[in-house]
Design a protein that fits this description.
This protein is of the alpha+beta class. It contains twelve helices and five strands.
């Protein structure tokens, strides 16, 4: 059975490298039982995102709905590869970000967004006539999704891997620049602010996966991310457009402190303003749903400073 699964997953990995499109989508398992659920969830996500980004009247398409569909498709693929029933993981994937822009706010409350997603799922799934036992499996999985203090359910493991894979590889690189553009950042600003996270998450992506299928898929995605960002930084430095360096560190894993996680930090080699030396310090802080690594960079001679912060990735023991 295990050998058969390995062969199946290896075939998928080759298909990904050859960019062969999949013919099946998550709606194949969803529509026969709950034909109106997809439209309902889409309306909730698009309304919340529209309320949040009301200042951006030119935005016509929903970034969050696009991401939700991608995660749901990946969750469906993982289920098929592992011969798991796909219905509940797909439904949990569809709801996993419904709490992100709750009431038009982004993290504007003390309740983790996954708990709000759980509440939204409970309300909608009851209206759709789903059995309460199934609803409880979906909502409990959403609540454990990114909570360091709770063990992941089997459904949550699939959604977790699908969510991370959707943000990695070529898709992850594309999303990096979409987000940078939405924030109004220049190329150098976006690299200083966020490429440390991308390189760190990319380097440990296979170890961060909770399913066997996810780990196989992550191996290829890892190489894409590292190759792109390392190559981009080398090219910018070569042409004099930036003075950046990648510093490697090790940091204890929050949930398994006996294990060290490789951290990649993209830092200016000299102050962007006065070309003098920099002071760099590191600390951790408790975020809403993770332990964050905080790196402060300050010029020794002028007022230039920058801060990099991101959740320290979890790795499987």
């Amino acid at each position: 059975m295990i050998d058969s699964l390995d062969k199946t997953i290896d075939n998928l990995t080759r298909n990904i490298k050859n960019m062969k499109p999949t013919k099946q989508t998550f709606s194949d398992c969803l529509n026969p039982q709950f034909p109106h659920l997809l439209r309902h969830i889409r309306d909730v996500i698009e309304k919340a995102e529209k309320d949040f980004s009301k200042s951006n009247a030119s935005q016509k398409e929903s970034y969050l709905w696009e991401h939700t569909c991608l995660v749901s498709n990946l969750a469906y693929e993982i289920c098929l590869l592992q011969q798991d029933p796909p219905l509940l993981p797909v439904i949990a994937s569809l709801f996993h970000d419904t709490g992100k822009f709750h009431k038009g706010e982004y993290h504007g409350h003390d309740t983790p967004e996954e708990h709000i997603s759980s509440q939204v799922a409970n309300q909608i799934l009851k209206k759709q006539g789903m059995k309460q036992s199934q609803i409880d499996l979906v909502t409990s999985s959403l609540e454990t999704l990114y909570d360091e203090n709770k063990p992941l359910t089997e459904i949550a493991k699939i959604v977790h891997d699908a969510d991370f894979i959707a943000k990695s590889g070529h898709m992850g690189v594309a999303q990096f620049f979409i987000k940078s553009t939405l924030k109004g950042q220049t190329l150098i600003q976006s690299l200083l602010q966020s490429s440390s996270r991308e390189l760190t998450y990319g380097s440990v992506l296979p170890q961060n996966m909770k399913t066997k299928a996810g780990r196989k898929m992550a191996l290829h995605k890892k190489e894409v991310v590292l190759s792109f960002f390392e190559g981009l930084i080398r090219e910018l430095n070569h042409h004099g457009a930036a003075h950046l360096e990648i510093k490697k560190k090790s940091w204890p894993c929050p949930r398994h402190p006996e294990k060290n996680i490789p951290i990649s930090l993209v830092l200016p080699s000299v102050c962007p303003q006065c070309q003098e030396d920099m002071d760099v310090s590191h600390s951790t802080q408790n975020g809403l749903k993770c332990t964050q690594l905080v790196t402060n960079i300050r010029c020794k001679h002028c007022s230039w400073e920058n801060q990099i912060s991101f959740c320290i990735p979890e790795i499987c023991p």
